[in-house]
Sequence to fold (237 residues):
Amino acid sequence: MPFDFLSHNLYTINYEEFLIKSIEIFPAKDKNLKYQYFKKWINLLKTLDDQCQNYVLTNELKVMQNILNLQIFQFKIPIYDNTSNIAEFHFNIDNVIAKLKFVLSQKDLKGISVSIDKFMENDSQIKWDEASSTVLRSNSLPLLIVPFLFGQFDYLVIDGNHRLTNAIKIQEKQINAIFISSVVLQDQQIFMSRFDQLFYLFNYEIVHFANEIYYDNLPFEHLLKKSLLNTHFATTI
Fold:
């Protein structure tokens, strides 16, 4: 069972349905190849799921103490629109900021200026959530945005929804943002758990591959060579 770091509860994922739906919907034609691909991903997710559950159950007090004052961003994904079968990933925003300060120059930490309209368009490619309040943290960085392929979206705001909500309220025209490289996202420490990182990367890869198959007609066999299963996680499987 993975851990919900905001509600402080373990939750379950129906992996059998996950596998069946993945094979059914993914646009590649070779069913056996699809089965092997998704089976490996889901077995890896299940392994880290079990590790997460065991760690939380045996270190409950330590886990609660560690997350008490952390800034955590959570995103929930209904698996193929099934709202009763949901997976989550969580970013450790404190570690994200520390990582950015380590790898970026002072100039780059100021971000780039982005038109507010980019967030307001009906077909906006940036997923963000309107905050219920506009209470702002002092000395905060620009908006933190990660690559995120999901539905119509290409990007996800993981920190700064309050600042963006406030900027829209006072009718500002521009806002600064840092678009975080996908390379940075392969650092496990910026996620709350290895399961969270793996599920985020899994979702990113399968949507990216599906788009390349559907729109660019690239062969699935070719794409598999650059799968994280064969690169980043090859020794884990």
About this structure: Residues 3-224 form one domain.
